Amino acid sequence: MSLLYTQPVITTGSLKSVSVTQVLLASPRGFCAGVEMAIKALAWMVRSFEPPVYCYHEIVHNQLVVDRFRSLGVVFVDDVTEVPEGRPLMLSAHGSAPEVVAEAKKRGGYVVNAVCPLVTKVHHEVRVRSDKGYRIVYVGHQGHEEAVGTMAVAPKKINLVSEISDVAALPEFDEPIAMLAQTTLSHRDWEDVLEATKARFPDVWMPGRSDLCFATTNRQSALASIAERCDAVVVIGSANSSNTMALAKLAEASGCTQVFRVNAADELPNDLKGIIGVTAGASAPEELVSAVIERLSPDEGVEEIRITDEDEYFPPPRELRELLSTLETAVHALLAVPVSSRVAPLDREIAASEVLASLSD
After folding, report:
1. pLDDT at 321
2. What is the pTM of this model?
3. Which pLDDT belongs to residue 108?
4. Distance between CA atoms of 155 and 264, rounded to whole angstroms?
5. Which of 96, 169, 235, 279 could form a disulfide with 100 if both were Cys (CB 3.0 to 4.6 A apart)?
6. DSSP β-ladder status, 135-139 and 158-161
7. Over the chain (361 residues), what is each successive 10-residue block's mean pLDDT?
8. Is 146 a catalytic residue?
9. Residue 310: how many CB atoms within 10 A of its CB?
10. Among 105, 107, 63, which residue's Cα sits nearest to residue 82?
11. 135 DSSP 8-state letter
């Protein structure tokens, strides 16, 4: 399905010397439900507490998002012991090791755990399988925050693999084997390692529902639907974003000879021409997409190729829901608002891209 693209654009100046015929815009793209939840949650904290508000690791892997929060007094740390006792702290969407969560709560401040529910699911699977005596083969990227946090759930019972050679190098195990994965992997990263693991351990246990993030899969499928038609593909997102890099690899694997991973419109090359495909990783805000399209300034406009609609919604983290509920009750009582006149919170109807834009006002 294709449709006309009507998203407002941010003027950055077009590349007048470049003859870009058309932009094919992949959809879905950009913010996933987990990122939506995390950004809105941190925005609530910024507006609820005097600065500084602390965040363990980058809230998401995107520099524009991180810089905007930093300008509002958010301090990003890689060790929760850097957080002064009693200060508010958010734990990032990628998930944190159990000992990190425990230390954060011990410091006595208001703690919000913004871990993506899909990552929580994998943590739960690691805990359950390891308690049942399984050895876990975990497919992920060494050093990625999600992988680090997941492996810390059962560090003595889990082995990280990233490619087929890692599977071959695994020792023989006496325990039964369970296979789990980093949620942001591409199917390309996952499938080869999956087949190698099943060949090595034929009785391997796997969850009934894939660990791979549905949003990651949707963004890859949307890009695959346009890549062969493009003279070049632009992938918007940060280099430390696993799903962004997976999109760039997918475009290359689809046969596109020019693939550009950019943080922002000013990183676009000056000689692009023909039909340009555009997509964005799950941590990249829509304003970056708008700026890229404005800079490309296609002669024949933009065609948005939508392969599916996403309606997944993750509510605010439990700790924040409790705070907001308490504040709502207090306001209603103070203003004597009748129960019949009270309006339910509108969090679901407000997009994180709108929240992020409002933070710069």
Report:
1. 79
2. 0.83
3. 83
4. 38
5. 96
6. parallel
7. 39 53 96 93 90 94 93 95 95 92 91 94 97 97 93 96 96 96 86 94 93 92 95 95 92 92 95 96 94 96 95 88 61 52 61 80 57
8. yes
9. 14
10. 107
11. E
Nearest to 232 by CA among 2, 14, 19: 19
Provide the residue range defining the domain that includes 38. Answer: 34-116+334-358
| Choice among 145, 146, 286, 287 that is catalytic | 146
CA 281 vs. chain centroid, Å, equals 8
Which residue type does 282 have? A
- CATH number, residue 187: 3.40.1010.20
The pLDDT of residue 318 is 86
- What is residue 327's predicted lDDT score, i.e. its pLDDT? 55
> Helix or strand or coil: residue 260?
strand
Based on the fold, state whether residues 231 and 276 are members of the same structural domain. Answer: yes
Same domain, 27 and 57: no
Return the structure tokens found at 8.
Answer: 């407002």
Q: Which residues contact 34 (CB under 8 A, 6 or more apart)?
A: 93, 116, 117, 118, 119, 213, 215, 282, 314
Q: Can you read off the two tokens belonging to residue 344?
A: 């339910």
Within 8 A by CB and 6+ apart from 56, the residues are 76, 77, 78, 80, 83, 89, 90, 91, 92, 96, 100, 104
- Size of the chain in residues: 361
Q: Residue 256 corresponds to which tokens in the numbers above? A: 């596109």
Backbone angles phi, psi at 318, to 5 degrees: -55, -45
Tens digits of residue pLDDT in 240-252: 898 899 999 999 9
Do 226 and 302 belong together in one domain?
yes
> Which secondary structure element, helix H or strand E, spans residue 36, and what is its range?
helix 33-48
pLDDT of residue 110: 92
